[in-house]
Amino acid sequence: MTAYEKLLEFARDTQALGEVAGRLGWDQETVMPNGAGAQRAEEMAAMEKVLHARRNDPGVSEWLEAIDESSLDDVGRAQVREIRRARDRADKVPVSLAAELARVTSAAQGKWAEARAADDFAAFKPVLEEVVKLRREEASALAGGGDHYDALLDDYEPGISGNDIQTLFDAMRPRLVTLRDKALGASNQPEILVGNWAEKKQLKLSGKLAKTFGYDLNHGRIDKAVHPFSSGSGLDVRITTRTSVEDPFNCFYSTIHEVGHACYEQNIDRAYLLTPIGRGASMGVHESQSRIYENQLGRSRAFTGWLFDQMERRFGKTPASDAEAFYGMVNRLQKGFIRTEADEVQYNLHIMLRFDLERRLIGGQLDVADLETAWNERFAADFGYDVDKASNGVLQDVHWAVGLFGYFPTYALGNIYAGCLYDALRGDLPKLDAQLAGGNATYATAWLAEKLQSNGSLRTPRETIEHATGQSISVEPLLKYLEAKFEGIYFG
Question: In which domain, by residue range, is 40 found?
Answer without folding.
Answer: 3-146
